[in-house]
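Re: the 269-residue chain
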Amino acid sequence: MEINQKAEHFYDKFYDWLLLKGPMILLGIAVLLVGLWLIRLFSRWMQNRMMRKKINSSLKPFFLSVTVVVLRILLVFLVMQIMGIQLTIFAALVGAVGVAAGLALSGTMQNFASGVLILLLKPFRVSDNIIAQGQEGTVTSIQLFYTVVTTFDNRTVIIPNSKLSNEVIINISAIGSRRLDLELKFNYGIDLSKVRHVIDETIAESKSILKTPEKRVGISLLEENGYKVMINVWLNSHGFHDARMIFQENLLENLKSSGIKLPGMDTKS
C-alpha cells in the first residue's frame, strides 16, 4: 500500500513537472530542429557566396566550419535557456577550457592568425619569389599555419606564418621585373666610348633584357688607377639568375674579343 502511495506521489510530481516544463521542452526541441535547418541553409548560402567572391581555397572550409560550429553552439545555448536549464556551470566550463587552450596553443594560434592575414591581405602568392628569414626561393604552398618555400637549389623550407607576418618580406615577383646592377673597372688608357659600344651591343643582343625600363650605362666612380662603369638593365623576375649569368658571360666574351682589358684579364689568352 505504501509503495502504491509513493508511486502515485511520484506520478503526480512527474505530471505536474511535465505540465510545467513540457511546453518549454517541446518549444526547445522545435527551436533546435528549425535552427539546425536554418544553419544548414545558411552554410549553403555562405559557401556559394565565397565561391562568387573567389576567396582563397584554404580559407573557405575554415570560415565555413567555424561559422557553423559557432551558430550550433549558440543554438544549443538558446535551446537550453528556453528549456530552463541553468547555463552558469556551462559558461564557467567553457571559459576555463578556453583559457587553458589559449595558453597551451598560443604559438600555434599566432601562426594560424598570421596565416589567415597572409591569405586575406596577399603580401605574396603561390609561385612568387620571395626573400624571407634569410631564404630566397619560390612560394609553393601557403597553409594556415606555415608557408612552404622551395629555394633555387631545390631545398624545401617550411616557415611558420608568424615569422612572415611580423618580419620583413621581400617580394621579388610583385612587380614582375628586377634590375641587374653590374659594375666593371677599366684603366684610364681604355677609351670609354669603346667600352660603351661593346656594352650597348651586348645589351642589344641579349633576348632576356627588357626594353623598358631603359638601360643605364655610365661612370659610377673615378679612382686613382682607373674608372668604374655601372650597368643597370632590367630582367624578368622569373629566371633572373640564369639571365644574369648568361649576360655576364656574353659581356665578358665581347670585351675580351674587342681587346678591352679588365683588371686581371689577359687579352692574349
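The domain at 177-257 is CATH 3.30.70.100 (Alpha-Beta Plaits).
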